Amino acid sequence: MKTIKKTKTMLMTAGIALALNIIAISTFAQDGPVKVHEVGLVFSNLNSFGLRYKCGNENMLLRITALSFNGNNTTNTYDNYSYNGISNAVPSTPSSAIGGGLNIGFEKRKRINDKSYFYYGIDWINTYTESKSNTTTPGTFTYVSNNIYQTLIYDNNNTSNIWSVSTGLGIVAGYGYRINDSFSLAVELIPSASYKYTHTDVTSVSNSVPFYGNGVGYAATPNITNQTTINSGITYSLTNAAASITIAYRLKRS
User: Fold this and answer.
1) What is the DSSP string of 190-202?
2) Distance (Å, rounded) from C-alpha 49 to C-alpha 33?
3) How high is the pLDDT of residue 18?
4) Are the beta carbons of 178 and 116 closer than 8 angstroms?
5) Which residues of 17-40 are buried (b: 16+ CB within 10 A; e: fewer)?
6) pLDDT at position 214, please?
7) How many domains does the chain fold into?
8) What does the pLDDT look like over 142-194, one tens digit per residue?
9) What is the distance of C-alpha 217 from the center of its chain?
10) What is the pLDDT of residue 241?
11) Residue 116 φ/ψ, nearest 5 degrees
12) What does R_g of the chain's alpha carbons equal in angstroms?
C-alpha cells in the first residue's frame, strides 16, 4: 500500500508542476491584439472522440482536451446449471469499467495564407482506466455413499480488479484550415512517450471436497487465492491512433 500511495503522490506532484508551467505559458498566450476562444470535437482512429477547448491569440493558444470518457456496468445472468438431472443456480456475475483522460498543452501557429496555418506545440497527456469483473463457473464432484454414486455441485469464483494510470508528454504537429469565420478543420499528429502504471488484484475461490470420515460425508470447502500484479514502465506511441481530426467552432474573437 505504501508503494502505491508513493507512486500516486509522485505522479500527482509531477503533474501539478507541469500544469503550473503550462498555465504560466498560457498567460503569455493571452497577450495580443486578437483573442481566440475555440471549442471542438476531436475524432481519433474513428472509434474515440473528445472535446477540446483553446484560448489565446492567433499566434499562441492554450489547449485543454477531455478525451473520450467511457464506461459500462453489466450483469451476466445464467440459466440454472444441471448435471445428470441435478440442478444448481449459478449466481449472476457483475462487471464494470470506466476510462478517460485529460490533456493540457499549448500550440503555436504559423500562418500559411488567409485560410490555412501550420501549428506545433506540446501536450501533457493523462489517462485513467479501471475495470472490475466477477466470474462464477459451476463444478461437480462425484463420490460413493452407501454403494451409490452421488454428485455434489459447487461454484468456483474469480474476481479481478484492474486499474491503470499513465502520464506523459506528446509533441503536437498539425495543419488547420478555416472553413469560414466560425468553423475550422484541423488534422494533427501527437507522437508521445508516457509512464504507465497498472495494478491488478485477482481473487480466486476454488472449492475442494474433502472426506470428513465416520459417515459424516462430503462437503465443499473453499480454497482462497489472492494475487497482486504490478506492471510499470515507459510506453511510446507513433501510430495512427496518435492522429486526430478536430472540427472547431470559434466562440469569440475580439
Assistant:
1) --EEEEEEEEEEE
2) 32
3) 54
4) yes
5) ebeeebeebbeebeeeeeebebeb
6) 46
7) 1
8) 767 677 776 666 777 888 999 999 999 999 999 999 999 899 999 999 999 99
9) 49
10) 56
11) -130, 160
12) 28
The identity of residue 207, as a single letter, is: N
Single-letter residue type at 250: R
For the beta carbon of residue 64, count every other beta carbon within 10 angstroms.
17
| Pair 95, 74: CB distance under 8 Å | yes
pLDDT tens profile 70-124: 666 777 666 666 656 666 666 667 788 888 889 999 999 999 998 999 999 999 9
Distance separating alpha carbons of residues 190 and 241, to the nearest angstrom? 9
Range of the domain at 90: 2-253
Closest CA to 104 of 225, 231, 17: 17
3-state secondary structure of 41: strand
Closest CA to 200 of 233, 224, 228: 228
Round to the nearest angstrom and report the end-to-end CA distance of the chain. 52
Q: Which residue has the cell 482536451?
A: 65
CA–CA dist 128, 201 (Å, integer):
17
Q: One-letter amino acid identity for 11?
A: L
